[in-house]
Design brief:
Strand content: 15-25%
Radius of gyration: 23 Å
Structural class: alpha/beta
Number of helices: 15
CATH class of the largest domain: Alpha Beta
CATH topology of the largest domain: Aminopeptidase
CATH superfamily of the largest domain: Zn peptidases
Low-confidence stretches: 1-18
Largest sheet: 17 strands, mixed
Mean pLDDT: 93
Helix content: 25-40%
Number of domains: 2
Shape: globular
């Protein structure tokens, strides 16, 4: 059912003690500036930048008035393995007696989940498997009738129906499902036994340009530690440039556009690239380490065993592909020094407002940029029982485009947390809107997803796209400028000239929602029929 009338009454009658509390813009500005400075070297897990970040966050959490959140400790160890590809050969395709050699970085990127010192894929047959989806519940299997064990699979990114303008296609229409995420593509290819899984990059369905792929994949990579060293995964995973893929298809006597169209129709059958083989090799520098989630709490005054979560990832890419001016530090000012700063500012504001009935927890998670690894570890190894976790908010990349008339809710309509946000928005004279680009799959790209998978309702929204100055056109232009020129690159840097007005309105929303959740005794749920509802219901009855 939808949010109950009883819960609205609880919200409406909650203590007004926090009504005038405002998170500090000075705290937001200073924490963002510090975390994104060159001294923190891009905050990559397992580096000196992590050590500085964790120490700084503990200091800031203490200063804000928090107590250690992990049984008297400030941190939770997250076992990771750092893999650094060395001596990467070109990715070569041999077809029709000719060889295409794709260079590492500009034309292809490659890595592995396998914790092994050497990767060799030699003369592996090549098969185009469309979108690489095996979804029995939807009657869809791109691997039907083909054996790809030991072979190299080429995969399209996103879902087969991403070009639709509506949301009623076999895979959510315009909205991406998890089947469309690159992480799923590699997971399924491994289940099918592929030796190598290569995604064909296209900017629209990927939601970012090749520059983002190159900067994200050519440095040290983090994987979760595992007893089997991920030996069940494909040897090599990576991406190739769109133009290179088209040339490869043409060399194999296939028209890429026709193959892509075929892949979008139910009943598609995988297409071997006749006579084509793939080869790639590289060494792996391996280092095991324990990264850190940083956890602080404000204990509840009445029901301290009931937890309201606030999450943001502290990590970024560290040193990455250099900009033309030689700058190779991906500072991650927007992504996600701003969200981490919001954790500190919110903790500070809640402490000033006084203890709430429920416990407020603030969790700065690691390795989001490596596939949500820190939040995934927390979800599998929760410090606070998930059945006693009321719900929470996640903050990732606050907008510096200026004040907006709206916020864009990622996954709007999925949970009863929407009502809490709507109430907070009404106090600001603003509204919630749906994602304008659901095909980008933002729901699966930040840490709220790791908690949602375990049934915990999590609210995640982005800064509004309908700006007070310039409207939707200005909002779209600002988003495009950031994605093209700064996202996952060295120029995502702190700007002293930023207008913090819009970001602080959004942080105020997070404060109001978090405080309301900590004050009411209601237990918000996912709406009836949502994919996470049954998981939540089971956890709450244990």
């Amino acid at each position: 059912m939808r949010f109950s009338r009883f819960a609205f009454v609880l919200l409406a009658t909650a203590s007004p003690a926090f009504a005038q509390t405002q998170p500090s813009v000075d705290t937001m500005r200073e924490v963002t500036r510090t975390l994104s400075s060159d001294a923190f070297e891009g905050r990559a897990p397992g580096t000196a930048g992590e050590e500085k970040t964790v120490a700084y966050l503990i200091e800031q959490f203490q200063k804000a008035g928090l107590k250690p959140g992990n049984n008297g400790q400030w941190t939770q160890d997250v076992p990771l393995v750092e893999l650094q590809a060395k001596n990467v050969s070109p990715l070569t395709f041999t077809v029709g007696g000719k060889t295409m050699a794709l260079s590492y970085g500009p034309e292809m990127v490659v890595g592995t989940y396998q914790v092994t010192p050497r990767i060799d894929v030699a003369n592996s047959d090549v098969v185009f498997v469309g979108y690489g989806i095996n979804a029995p519940e939807r009657g869809w299997n791109d691997y039907a009738g083909v054996d790809v064990r030991g072979k190299t699979v080429l995969i399209l990114v996103n879902d087969p129906d991403y070009r639709m303008t509506t949301l009623d296609g076999p895979f959510g229409g315009r909205a991406m499902t998890y089947y469309g995420r690159w992480t799923y593509k590699y997971e399924e290819a491994a289940r099918q036994g592929a030796a190598a899984a290569i995604i064909i990059h296209q900017t629209e369905p990927a939601a970012y340009g090749w520059n983002v792929v190159q900067s994200s994949w050519t440095g040290a990579q983090q994987v979760a530690d595992a007893a089997n060293g991920h030996s069940d995964q494909s040897k090599a995973i990576g991406w190739i440039q769109f133009d290179q893929a088209k040339a490869l298809f043409a060399a194999a006597g296939l028209d890429f556009a026709a193959a892509e169209r075929a892949a979008g129709a139910k009943g598609f059958r995988a297409m071997p690239l006749k006579g084509a083989t793939a080869s790639v090799s590289f060494d792996n520098a391996i280092r095991k380490h324990a990264s850190k989630n940083v956890i602080g709490i404000l204990p509840g005054s009445q029901r301290p065993d009931e937890i309201v979560l606030h999450t943001a990832h502290w990590d970024h890419l560290g040193r990455c592909e250099a900009a033309p001016d030689g700058d190779d530090i991906c500072n991650g000012a927007i992504d996600n020094a701003t969200g981490t700063a919001a954790l500190v500012a919110l903790a500070e504001a809640h402490a000033k407002a006084g203890a709430a009935p429920r416990t407020l927890a603030f969790v700065a998670v690691t390795a989001e940029e490596s596939g949500l690894l820190g939040s995934a570890y927390y979800g599998a190894n929760p410090v606070f029982p998930l059945g006693q976790t009321v719900g929470g908010v996640n903050m990732d990349a606050l907008s510096m485009a200026g004040p907006a008339k709206n916020v864009v809710v990622i996954g709007r309509g999925k949970s009863e947390l929407d009502a809490y946000l709507d109430r907070a928005l009404a106090a600001q004279g603003r509204v919630a809107t749906n994602e304008p680009t659901p095909e980008k799959g933002f729901y699966y790209r930040s840490d709220h997803f790791s908690l949602a998978k375990y049934g915990v309702p999590m609210l995640y929204f982005e800064g509004g796209d309908d700006l007070v100055k310039g409207g939707v056109a200005a909002g779209e232009a600002a988003a495009k400028d950031y994605e093209t020129n700064r996202y996952h690159g060295p120029k995502d840097e702190f700007d002293p000239a930023w207008d913090w007005t819009g970001a602080m309105r959004d942080v105020q929303l997070y404060f109001d929602v978090g405080r309301a959740l900590a004050t009411t005794d209601a237990w918000p749920n996912w709406v009836a029929g949502d994919e996470f509802r049954a998981i939540r219901d089971r956890s709450r009855t244990r």
